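Exercise: predict the fold of this chain.
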Amino acid sequence: MRSAKKKMPASVKAGGCGRKTARIRRLCFGMAAGFLLSFGAGGSPAVSQTSDLVSQNAFRVCADPANAPMSDKDENGFENKLADLIASKLELPVQYTWFPMATGFIRNTLRANKCDVVMGYAQGHELVLNTNHYMTSVYTLIVPKEGELASVDVLSDDRLKDKRIGIVAGSPPSTHMARNGLIGAAKPYNLMVDRRHESPAVDMLSDLEAGDIDAAILWGPIAGPLVKQDHPNLTVIPLINETLPPRLFFRITMGVRQGNAVWKRKLNSLIRRNRDEIDALLIDAGVPLLNDQGNALYEPRS
């Protein structure tokens, strides 16, 4: 399933060396998961210290071909744009291997050496070696912008009682909903799906627009961009005020193969050095960003 398409950064096409400035596990429907760092030339230390399995000729990314707004085969997702940003720093072409983000994804992609990085993995995922996080985001409540629920910011709010709320079955907010007596009237949506054939997030927001449900709860990096793109009458409320477990915010990293510690350190350096451009790209896409502690919305540096 390896794509033959390679996207060349502008600096490579021009032959120059200039610099160019822009799943989560199960809880995100298979969302969630790419950075690579530049290689030194010839026998430089950068090359000699890099795993032989890591390509020196392309920025190899494994991604879901139908996981908008994060990634898609047309490369319009914000993770695709993030890959383009890093590739421009590396002066390498982007090369994708497409595979549905479902059971067996890592086994059939990263572990099979069909790529060197997977974008958007939650910190601590055991199947990959995580880089440092490049963003922290949170689950959100989506409601009509002019409706009675527009100022709700906690799931214990009495205004949610007896409301029909869309929720991805098995995702962390389900526990909060159960605690607050909201599950009985909830409308569940499937967790693990092949996005080429089913799209719970898109269906949920469409149901909300149609009035079939009163509110929706979605992972922020899905909800924010989708609402920004297609649902101007809805508003996205980050659930940052929930104090009881389970937590609803997560630090998102890039996943590399287990054992590639040197490669991981290179990526960490790249994330650190390009933090402002990464933040700007995510904010532009509509992703709600939190500070590293997950207790306040992130305010970009001026």
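Check your answer against the key: DSSP finds nine helices and 13 strands in the chain.
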